[in-house]
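Deliverable D5.2: sample structural annotation.
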Amino acid sequence: MDLDEINARIAEVHRDRKWILTPDAAGSATPMVEDLREWKSGPLMVVAATEGVGELPEVERIHYTRTGGDTVMEAIRAFVDSIEHPSKELLAAVDAFDPDAEAMILRTGFSHQPELFGRAVYGRRPAAWAALEDKMIIDELCDTAGITRAPSEIVPVAGAPDAADRLAGELGTVWAADNTEGWHGGGEYVRWVRSAADVKPAVEWLSAHAETVRVMPFLDGIPCSIHGFNTRDGTAVFLPVELIILRHAEESELIYARAANFWNPPGTIRDEMRRAARDMGALLAQRVGYLGGFGIDGVATRDGFRPTELNPRISIGHWIQARAAEVPLAGMERLLFAGDLDIAAAELEEMMTSVAETKRGGGTLYLLGGEYEAAETGVVFTGSGAVAVDVDEPSDATMQIGAGAYGSIIIMRLDPERNPIGPSVAPRALEAIALARDLWDIDVPQLEPAPDFFSEHGLEQP
């Protein structure tokens, strides 16, 4: 099945149907709404927590739950709760849009319910797949699949200091919480323990949110991920993606700032990462009949790729490569789950990797406390920093600031044609954040990128 046939099938399934989308930020639904309009879908409704950044989707109705929280995970959970246990106002808004209950829910976000607002969710994921979000299972999965990993221990929170003494490297250890409070991501339930001074606050925080923790050495190198997609005949494996994780060394804090795939690891590490994804995909299929996207996060160290967690879903690394290849991956996944589409893994892999070899993308998302007025600028990297230019002028990136479900956010999108393939983009992310600080008077701590010793020492590129 070629891309034209896939697009035609997706359009056929979505055409002339009424849909309700449930993103946490309305602006993030705009690309999906544009696709639905192209597929002649509608009418359309969006249920979101807040407006978000960027242009709002052009739909017949938007309803805001106005949920939020003091942290990203609190905000996400509050929004999921608001759609799984809807208010009278939300139900009334949905019924006004869809009085005959004809609409279907287009699966977006982190809810795994089969129905929302009394309407069926199209392309939902089985509960057994969602259970793979457990941060404590990566070691057993890697060992079973034959994937090399770093040493680690899973212990009660009170036992983490002793485990850290046994496992600590030069830069200490990393502690990750279990899923006592449910799914978590973005590093919010992770603590970097560098010294004795970090132990007490880490134990106190984790004791309030988890029963057990996974302790492992801090791995120095480029944070990265590798992504796969299971179809019914195998696993399509994509190319490595850099995770932009910035270090606030003074506070022993790790800040997740999204992802990009301009970075190229050495060929040996790329091969190791792709082999790990293929082996993991086969294991997930054998164990739970897994279909669709998944990713393995980890670190490209001097000794090779070392996994740190499994993300059993389509994630940012999938989106970056799918957009570059113009492959409707999320639509394909929904149809695959619903039994309305099938595709060979080898065909999908070729569609994605043939483009990703030369066309890259991605950028930075930086979270802020407080409220800031929406603004936008072009960004040019000069070699000694970033400068602002008018958004209509040629630029290496565009950058926006605006409201998020938690405080405010800065989003920087790199131009695929104006950024080099090879080195890490984390230094450019830091330059853009520094520019945002000067432009918009935001409070940013002193941050550092992960060391790109592959580029620095000219190690073999693919």
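Annotation notes: The longest helix spans residues 267-288. The chain has three domains: 3-124, 131-356, 363-451.
The annotation will be released with the project's public dataset once the embargo ends.
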